[in-house]
Specification:
single chain, 164 residues, alpha+beta, elongated, binds zinc ion
Length: 164
């Protein structure tokens, strides 16, 4: 009788401990999720691709290897992280513009932004652009050969609307 009671009491204690642990873990997970969401909140920004010097001041782009930034009409400067999209905006001559509307994610602690989506702005209009492989029927958004057959991709653009 005594043994049963003590065993019940122990089970109850373990149960309460596990419940407390669960509550704490859920609270921690919630906090983590919130801070991640804050860091990963995207921003849609329109501006011109510019070069920076070592003091993060706008500099001539001739022969520049970076760092790069997007400068808005309000003179706000977003320093950009090197990546496939930035490489495409820099190297794709068929874009025929230096002005873009991009989706940016701030990389926590770096002061840099990653471009996850880019539209080109030319002649007061916004265009989406992509690359298509007619052999594999694959669409990509960055410069390079077809990831499937390694053939050259067809460049395509489509008007999205006015640049306001
Ligand atoms: Zn292909």
């Amino acid at each position: 009788m005594m043994e049963t009671k003590s065993s019940h009491s122990r089970q109850w204690k373990i149960g309460r401990f596990l419940l407390t642990l669960t509550v704490i873990l859920l609270a921690m997970a919630g906090k983590l999720l919130t801070s991640n969401q804050a860091a990963k909140k995207p921003q849609v920004v329109m501006g011109r691709l510019v070069c920076l010097d070592s003091d993060a001041v706008e500099a001539p782009c001739a022969g520049a290897m970076g760092p790069w930034a997007l400068k808005t009409r309000e003179q706000k400067v977003y320093r950009l992280q090197a990546g496939k999209v930035l490489h495409t905006l820099n190297r794709e001559e068929r874009l025929r513009t230096r002005e873009f509307r991009v989706t940016l994610f701030e990389i926590p602690g770096s002061g840099e932004f990653e471009i996850t989506n880019a539209l080109l702005v030319r002649g007061g209009k916004i265009f989406s652009f992509s690359y298509f492989c007619p052999v594999c029927h694959i669409t990509t958004y960055t410069l390079g050969p077809c990831p499937c057959c390694q053939d050259a991709m067809e460049y395509r653009e489509k008007e999205v609307g006015p640049a306001e």
